[in-house]
Write a structure and sequence with these properties.
The protein is α/β, with parallel strands linked by helices. The chain is 52% helix and 15% strand. The protein has 19 helices and 13 strands. The strands form three sheets. It has a six-stranded parallel sheet with strand order 3-2-1-4-5-6, sandwiched between helices. Strands 7, 8, 9 and 10 form a four-stranded antiparallel sheet that branches. Helix 4 packs antiparallel against helix 12. It is globular.
Length: 453
């Protein structure tokens, strides 16, 4: 088996490689190709991810050549960020200047990221058709659901799956609170990527959601659940944490503005510090120091996650819960679970971003949704979700319409479609402001942004 990772100079790659080293025998992994257009950073990531014996029992290649990476690959993992972290800063700063949410994947930020990323993804899909026509495309890159739909509809790549670890985090939080094994919990989950709800937490044929909601109400603040407990009680569901930006949008914007900088600016500073230190320690041959710097980076980034947006700090007795909930392999674990299942090694049920095919009533068959799916050798089949609350379906439909217009705008290079897409997003709903924000994106992103006409 050959796996290719596109965008491998990112900070998640060491975690992916460590997970692969642990699972290499189960995967039957023979070759791993790490590809990125930034050769210098890729070399640092490659040096950082050297593992102790028995180490990698497969061929490991680092390259800036996408063709070499994709040639004869069985699985292609995409985790690139077009324009780098500086592009995220722009994505978030522009709408915030106008009092509109600036967040990486939600609202205008996700719109800008999607417009930049879709043409790149479709170019890779075209290369895959030539170099690895039977490969599965596993998309990490954000916005994950939008990119998965672009690949399936415009790239016509039916062997596409979008992945996210947000539902897995909910499962692990529930397991930590309920003191149950996470692998034995079934999450009745539905929605779109970063726009989903858990309406049952099942263990041994019993739904523990009512008990879980009571525990959240009593605890007051739970990592990964940044909502007023009264909202959760009213919904009788646990929303995905990204729904914080919809249920409390004005509060989120004000918290970010009050903090003095966006999350993108914060991460950009952490990344610069990390790579500067990795470069110095690599030059000195200090591998242990590189690993220490990387571990410190992960702690800093994890501890500060969503603190700007929520105005909350993770502290007190719930720190232990946050640690328990974070155990596991995150995105890497989701990707490798999926690869194991698709290769036939370990069939399983997972929450994935795949075409709906009737799973959620009221959503189009080809609309990519985030739902439980059964996965086995070369098979991904979404499980029936059925009817969902009208309020949820309405919001999902609005966001899906926005996504589809954004995908069309990126594919056609259409300014009119791009502006229309942004104007109907639930967090904006203003055609004039959509034009203002879009024009600023075009000006500030420059060549990293598609040329819209």
């Amino acid at each position: 088996m050959k796996i290719a990772v596109l965008g491998a100079a990112g900070v998640r790659t060491p975690l992916i490689l460590e997970a692969m080293a642990r699972r290499q025998e189960r995967l039957g992994l023979n070759e791993l190709a790490l590809m990125d257009i930034d050769g210098e950073r890729l070399a640092l990531i490659g040096a950082l991810t050297t593992v102790p014996e028995p180490g990698f029992q497969f061929k490991l290649t680092l390259t800036t050549d996408a063709r070499a990476a994709l040639s004869e690959a069985d699985f292609v993992i995409t985790t690139f960020r077009v324009g780098g972290i500086d592009s995220r800063v722009i994505d978030e700063q522009v709408p915030l200047r106008h009092g509109v949410l600036g967040q990486e994947t939600t609202g205008p930020g996700g719109f800008a990221m999607g417009l930049r990323s879709i043409p790149v993804l479709l170019a890779y899909v075209k290369l895959m058709a030539e170099l690895c026509p039977a490969a599965w495309l596993i998309n990490f890159a954000n916005p994950a659901g939008m990119l998965a739909e672009a690949a399936t509809r415009y790239g016509e790549w039916s062997r596409t799956v979008g992945i996210c670890d947000s539902p897995q985090v909910v499962t692990r939080i529930a397991a930590a609170l309920l003191r149950l094994p996470a692998e034995e919990i079934f999450l009745d989950y539905f929605g779109l990527n970063h726009l989903g709800w858990s309406r049952a937490v099942v263990h041994n044929q019993r739904d523990h959601l009512p008990q879980l909601i009571d525990m959240i109400r009593n605890l007051g603040q739970v990592p990964g659940v940044p909502f007023d407990s009264r909202l959760i009680a009213a919904l009788q569901m646990i929303p995905n944490e990204y729904l914080y930006y919809y249920y409390t949008s004005r509060q989120a914007v004000q918290h970010i503005l009050d903090s003095g900088s966006s999350r993108g600016e914060q991460v950009a500073a952490l990344n610069r510090q990390l790579f500067d230190e990795l470069k110095q320690r690599h030059a000195a041959g200090d591998l242990a120091g590189m690993r220490e710097a990387y571990a410190a980076y992960l702690r800093q980034r994890g501890d500060s996650y969503m603190t700007r947006e929520t105005g909350q700090k993770k502290h007190g007795p719930l720190e232990a819960l946050a640690g328990d909930a974070a155990e596991g392999e995150g995105y890497a674990g989701v990707a490798l679970d999926l690869i194991e299942a698709l290769s036939g090694a370990r069939p399983r049920q997972m929450i994935l971003n795949v075409p709906n095919r009737g799973a959620i009533q009221g959503m189009a068959a080809d609309a990519v949704v985030e739902v439980p799916a059964f996965v086995s050798r070369d098979l991904v089949r979404p499980l029936a979700v059925g009817a969902v609350p009208e309020g949820c379906l309405g919001l999902m439909s609005e966001v899906k319409n926005y996504e589809r217009l954004t995908i069309a705008a990126a594919q056609e290079g259409s300014y009119a479609l791009a502006r229309q897409a942004l104007a109907i997003h639930p967090l904006l709903r203003d055609y004039t402001m959509a034009g203002t924000i879009l024009d600023e994106y075009c000006a500030r992103h420059g060549d990293a942004f598609p040329q819209l006409k």
